[in-house]
Structure formats: C-alpha cells, structure tokens
Amino acid sequence: MNTVKIDLNKALKKYFGFNQFKGLQKPVIESLLKGQNTFVIMPTGGGKSLCYQLPALMSEGTAIVVSPLIALMKNQVDAIRGISTERGIAHVLNSSLNKGEVAQVKEDIENGITKLLYVAPESLIKEEYVNFLKEQKISFLAIDEAHCISEWGHDFRPEYRNLRSIITQIAEVPIIGLTATATVKVEEDILKNLKMPDANRFKASFNRPNLFYDVRPKTKEVNKDIIRFVRQYEGKSGIIYCLSRKKVEEIAQVLQVNGVKAVPYHAGLDAKTRVKHQDMFLMEDTDVVVATIAFGMGIDKPDVRFVIHHDIPKSLESYYQETGRGGRDGGEGYCLAYYAYKDIEKLEKFLAGKPVAEQEIGMALLQEVVAYAETSMSRRKFLLHYFGEEFDEVNGDGADMDDNTRNPKTRVEAKENVKKLIEVVRDTNQEYKSKEIINVLVGKSNALLKSRKTDQQPFFGTGKEKSESYWMALIRQVLVDHKLSKEIEQYGVLKTTKEGLKFVKNPVSFLMTEDHIYDMDGDDNIIINTKGTGASTDEALMKLLKDLRKRVGKEKGVPPFVIFQDPSLEDMTLKYPITLKELANVHGVGEGKAKKYGQDFVTLIAEYVEENEIFRPDDIVVKSVGTNSGLKLSIIMNTDKKIPLIDMAKSKGLSMEELIDEMESIVYSGTKLDITYCINEMIDEEDQEYIFEYFMDAESDKIDLALEEFDGDYDIEELRLMRIRFISEVGN
C-alpha cells in the first residue's frame, strides 16, 4: 500500500506538476488502481477529472471516459495533450470527426499511445465502435457527470442508462462514476443502474465557503440591475445563465452596447462560434459569457468572479452546479439569482406535455427551488441540507456568506405551531404533501381531503389563525431541523421523524423566520433607485418636471401627457439625462420626441444636478439594443401601405393587443403613425371628433378614465387606437 502512495505522489508530480493531492483525490485513485468500482461525489472545483486522468496515465491500455458535452471533451483533451509530447495521448470519439480523424484515433489506440478516450454515450452505442473497442486493452470506464443516469438528476439523459450493458459487451473492467451534485436519492439510482452497489463511495463536503449566495426579486429593471452589478467587476470574468436562447442573445447585446465585453453561448450557434466564444472566455478576450446551462460543464476556469442566474433554474442540483463554477481558485465568487414566481409557472407549463412520472419528478424539484428562493433562513444551511449535509450556521465555514444571514429577518417563537404541525402529519397517517398538510391546518377542504374524511377530523382548521405562507415557511424550517422528513419516492410526502415525535412529547423553543414574499407578478412596479437609498424617484425633481411639462403643454396648446408621460418623467428622475442623446434613452422617449420637446427638460435637469451636487448614475443609463426596431419599422411601413391591422398582427405573430402595444410605443417615442384608414372602418367621423376632443381636454390619457367617461359607448380597442391617432397628430 505504501508503495502505491509513493508512486502516486511521484506520478502526480511527473504528469501534473503538483506536490500534493486535493481532498479525496488520493483515496479515490487508490481505489480505482486496485480495480475496485468507485463512486465519487465531489463539488465543482474539487478536482474530479484528475481522479480518472492520473490512473489512466499510470495504467496499461486505454481508459474510456463517457462525457455528455463535446465542449467539455475538447477542453479536457487539450489539457492532457498539454502535459505530453504525444498528441495521441488523449482523443475524442464523437460525431464531429470525419473518417480520416476516426482512423487516426483507432490507430493510436491500437498502438497503445492513447491513454484517455473521451466518448459521448451516443457514440459508444455504435456497433462499429463497440466491435473495435472489444479488441483493445481497456483499463477502466469513467462516467463523468454521472447524475445524467438518474431520472432524479438535473440533466437526465436516457442514453446514459444503457452504459452498463454496453461496457459489459466491451470488457469486464472497473467503473468510476463521478458527479458534482447528487442527493441521496440520485446516488442510489446511479449505483443501482450501474449494478455496482458495492462500489467504494467517496463524498466530499458540498460547502464552498468562498461563494456568496444572493437572491433578488426579478423586476422590469433586471437588465439595469445586471449592468450595474457587472460593471463593479470590470475586467473580471463572469457567467450569466438564462433558460432560453432568445434571452441569451438579448442580454449579451444589452451588455455589449453598454460597454461590457460579453459573448453569447447556446446550442443555436454553430459549433465554430461556440468554440470561439468559449476560447475567448478562457483566454480572457471577453469578460462575460451569457449562456444557456450547456456552458461551463468541465470548463476549468478558476477565476470566475460572479455567476448570475437571470432565470431561476429547474432544480437545486442545476443551481448548485452552475454557481459552483464561481471562485474555483478559492477567491471571490458572487452567486446572484433573480426570482419571480411567474418563471416557476413557465417551467411548470413546459412539464405539462411530459409523462406523468416525469412531471411529478420535475414539479418536486421545482418546489425545492421555490423553497430555496423564498426562504429567509441561512441559504448555505438550506442548500447543504438538500444534499444531506449538516451545517452550523453560526460557526460553520462561510456562515455569513449569504443575503439572509447578512440581513436577517426577525425570528419569532413557533414552539406550539411546530408541535401542531408534527401532530397533523402524524394524525393524517403521513400520507400528504406539504400543500395538503397546509390545507388541513388552515381548514381548506378539497376532493382529496373529503375522500379520506380528513376534513371531519378535530384537528382540521386548528391552524387557521396563521396564513398558508406562514405554514409553508415553518414546514421548510422544520424539515431542515430534521423534525419532519420528505419522502422522495412518493414525490414529497411528509413523514415524522424520531426527533419530531420526541419534540411533540417535550416541546422546546423553536425560533422561525417567515419567508420572503415575492410579488406574484415579479414585482414589476419596483423602481431600482440609482442612489441606493430605497425604491423611490427624486420627488423634488419630479415636481419641477411636471410643472415644466404643464407649461410646455400650454405653450404648444396640447395636454401635458402629449409632451411626456409620467413613466418617462419618473425615469428622468432616476437617470438625470443632461443631453438630448441621453434623453433619447429614457423610457418612452425616442430621438424624435427628445428633439421636439427635450431641450427645456435637459436644461432644467442639468441645473438641478449642479445646484444639488447630485452624482449622476451613468452606470445604469442603459442603452437599448433596439431588439424591436425591425418590428417597429415594419409596422410604420405597413401602416403607410394601409395594411389592415388584423393582417399586420397575423403576419408578425402578434395578438391585436400586442400590436397596439407596439404602435403606442412608436407614437409615444415621437414617431408619427397614420392609422386613420383603419379607424374610419370602426368609428364614424362624428364619434372620432368627440373622442379627439375628449383627449384634447383631458388631464390624463389613461384609458380606464376614458372608458368611465364614455360609459361603454366605445370599447378599449377603439379608445386605444383613437389615443394613438391623437398622440401622433397632436404630439408628433
């Protein structure tokens, strides 16, 4: 055994130049070199890949490494080739190779040059490759990202579940499975599928003390907030994750036009562009990669200083793995996620078309994400508990490294309610999920509770003095405290524990914090205050701007709202534009409107800024990328051609409401739009004059006030179209 240790240290120095192993690397490698099946759970940044690379270099024959991503394989093959004079020491075998390249790979394996062969599971099942590999000396099989095997894993791939039968056809060799994220359920599922329950298991701590976890409400100002955040890290590396390709492109463009070196990365880009963007990130030719979740697996960049989730991920495993790409060198790693419940609802809709079992798994995983986002307890403790690890939130390493522990909410005594909660779980025969237990406590009956006569029990409604959100928060904290447990096999059914039943007999103090409440619409109305003192506009400037608007309106003979709407004035109090160019970037103000009415406004703002010594927040004067400029141009051209609105909407894939939204945006930004031709077909001339006069005399252009005034004579669509005509003719 000692000789193995000495050889290992020498080999580590010889091949990789390191003097010592990290964490569990050494015992893992010893296990594999002894020919034993091995299973490794090691967080991102823990050095998983060395656990199979070093044994492969030391062993006779070729090690097969199954990996899910071409980008990941390329990255690792380049790294191994960098430590050897033999280019053929490591190869990739996948769909990206031509016939000549495949022949070269086979030749190097036959000649004993290749020590590591990276294959995608789809390639490994090809009969041609199976027959070839049968004839070769194979040292072992490594399955990287092994969570892909499990249906409970966050990146399940059906082809991964056939790996055991394929490797058995090729050779009887030891298997090493590796993953950065696995709950107890996923771990058991992997080992069962690979038929190696006897494997030596190695599990490193999931705690990454240098990572700071922060969850913020996702508002309409999210792009502005991201730009402000990223600019604090100028010249440093970061990753921004989005769930859709469209959003990746949009955020990358917004960052680029606001002076941030950023590139997009998603499966819709051709392979050449993806490789180029990945290399730019690794070589520090760009600072930020905006990506779908495909980016980053196996990317060994140690100095990623922030990881932002623009969209909340589908599972806590995904979230943990993606945040784990930050601060791998032990330095700063800021993990910022934006959360709005409507994003969760979108993800639930995606699950709707899937098989029932898959839907239930997906929903269970999503609810864990909701719990993490909404909890006000230590995020680190919550996250580590999810992976089956205890954490001391007072003295643990990294204890104050999240938004909840830095800004704690008040804790309240909940001893009696914890007792009540555990008793209800016990007395309903431990057969309900959290939602039903809450229904029982607050006395909300439904078909399931009626069918089991639970709504007739004496404990039904005994917790109705508290809200549903209170009980949900309490359940989450009681779970983390092991007084209840969640049965994964039954998709989240709550069960009592020994500790919980002991608590019922002898209750002691239990301090709880209530969850954060995020607006169901994603807090769309929050305005991020640029001065960092709260969510409010500059009221003094707002009053001056309104007075000026009124004065200009009188001079021009038009209602004040024709000049600039309230949201535009509010945005001016946040951005303090002092040139017409800056004014054109204000919400609802285009170049035309800025030129027509803007000079008096920027002069007033410039004087106000100077008199009050205001620091102008240039960092969040977000330049627009004009993503809809093509659509707007098309609408202007089509109205010039007098195309019917219904046909215009259909050709652009818009509803009538969405088309009117776009048209309003055009005219409020100062561009003329002649839609008289379509209004003439809907409203007779006399009525048009009547509505026109109303808007001319009105103090506000709000449609609900107009509806009230006309008392049902005209519908919303008619009034909105007349307002567009009015603004276009009078204001522009």
CATH topology of the largest domain: Rossmann fold
**Can you tell me the CATH architecture of the largest domain?**
3-Layer(aba) Sandwich
Q: What do we call the CATH homologous superfamily of the largest domain?
A: P-loop containing nucleotide triphosphate hydrolases
- β-strand amount: 5-15%
Give structural notes.
- By secondary structure, the protein is of the alpha/beta class.
- It folds into five domains: 2-203, 3-Layer(aba) Sandwich (Rossmann fold), CATH 3.40.50.300; 211-346 and 365-394, 3-Layer(aba) Sandwich (Rossmann fold), CATH 3.40.50.300; 415-509, Arc Repressor Mutant, subunit A (Orthogonal Bundle); 539-620, HRDC domain (DNA polymerase, domain 1); 629-731, Orthogonal Bundle (Arc Repressor Mutant, subunit A).
- The chain has 34 helices and 17 strands.
- The strands form four sheets. The protein has a seven-stranded parallel sheet with strand order 3-4-2-5-6-1-7, with helices on both faces.
- Helix 8 (163-170) links the parallel strand 5 and strand 6 (175-179).
- Helix 14 (341-351) runs antiparallel to helix 15 (356-374), helix 23 crosses helix 27 and helix 32 (685-697) crosses helix 34 (716-731).
- The radius of gyration is 31 Å and the shape is globular.
- Mean pLDDT is 84; it is low at 1-5 and 520-536.
What's the arrangement of secondary structure elements?
Blueprint: H1 2-16, H2 25-33, E1 38-41, H3 50-58, E2 62-66, H4 70-81, E3 90-93, H5 99-110, E4 116-119, H6 121-124, H7 127-134, E5 138-143, H8 163-170, E6 175-179, H9 184-193, E7 200-203, E8 211-217, H10 222-231, E9 237-241, H11 245-257, E10 262-265, H12 271-282, E11 288-291, E12 304-309, H13 316-323, E13 333-339, H14 341-351, H15 356-374, H16 379-386, H17 403-406, E14 411-413, H18 415-427, H19 434-442, H20 447-451, H21 468-480, E15 484-487, E16 493-496, H22 498-505, E17 511-513, H23 539-556, H24 560-563, H25 566-575, H26 580-583, H27 591-611, H28 629-640, H29 645-651, H30 656-668, H31 676-682, H32 685-697, H33 703-710, H34 716-731
Helix pairs in contact: 2-3, 14-15, 18-22, 19-21, 23-25, 23-27, 30-34, 32-34
